[in-house]
Amino acid sequence: MKHLQDVPLAKAYLLLNHGPSTLVTSEHEGVANVMAAAWVMPLDFDPPKLMLVLDRNTWSRHLVEGSGAFVIQLPSRRQAELTVDVGSCNGGELNKFARYDIATARARCVEAPIIEGCLAYLECRVIDEPHNQQRYDLFIAEVVAAYADERAFSNGRWHFPDDQLRTIHYQAGGAFFATGEAFQVAKG
């Protein structure tokens, strides 16, 4: 077919990796961390569940396994630099909250910080699936609380009043794009 080019299989994930970038916060025994994660997806509606790929070599993995909880946050375009920063260093080696002067509050239902200024928050409790966690680094979690900035999400829909209040989507190598304009198609 015209205009198609092969994509190396090792880079095939980039074809799907344009969902919103997320920040994951976790805490265990008074130690907290934040990391960037692009591989988060919804799994079920009722009760709401999601999946998160959490590499076994990350500090966040240690905290999530200890606490059984985490918070997914959707950063805005104004938080793109922060997203790259927290995704480029190891929380086991430094306190990212102090290093990047991150303003936080407490999550509503789980023991973890939330990052102020994000567009949406999903508080999650891990559904223990040792096989998936050990073999695939895949965590399944139930969403126990969800809330969003009403300027960008209301009545069950995303709407972006200005460029700074858009979700961001990580591609690779520090490259992002912002969510585009919303549109609706009438049912036929």
Describe the structure.
- This protein has a single domain, classed as Pnp Oxidase, Chain A, CATH 2.30.110.10.
- Helix content is 14%, strand content 37%.
- It is built from 4 helices and 13 strands.
- The strands form 4 sheets. Strands 2-1-5-8-9-4-3 form a 7-stranded antiparallel beta sheet. It has a two-stranded antiparallel sheet with strand order 6-7.
- A hairpin with a 6-residue loop joins β6 and β7.
- The longest helix is centred in the middle third of the chain and has 9 residues, at 59-67.
- The two termini are 30 Å apart.
Write the layout of secondary structure elements.
Elements lengths: L21 E7 L2 E7 L2 E6 L2 E6 L5 H9 L1 E6 L5 H7 L9 H4 L4 E3 L6 E3 L4 E8 L2 H7 L1 E11 L4 E2 L2 E2 L9 E5 L2 E4 L10
Antiparallel strand pairs: 1-2, 1-5, 3-4, 4-9, 5-8, 6-7, 8-9, 10-11, 12-13
Structural class: mainly beta
Strand order of the largest sheet: 2-1-5-8-9-4-3
| Largest sheet entry | 7 strands, antiparallel
CATH superfamily: Electron Transport, Fmn-binding Protein, Chain A
What features would you highlight for this structure?
188 residues; mainly beta; Pnp Oxidase, Chain A; two-stranded antiparallel ribbon; globular
Please give a quick description of this structure.
With 188 residues, this protein is mainly beta.
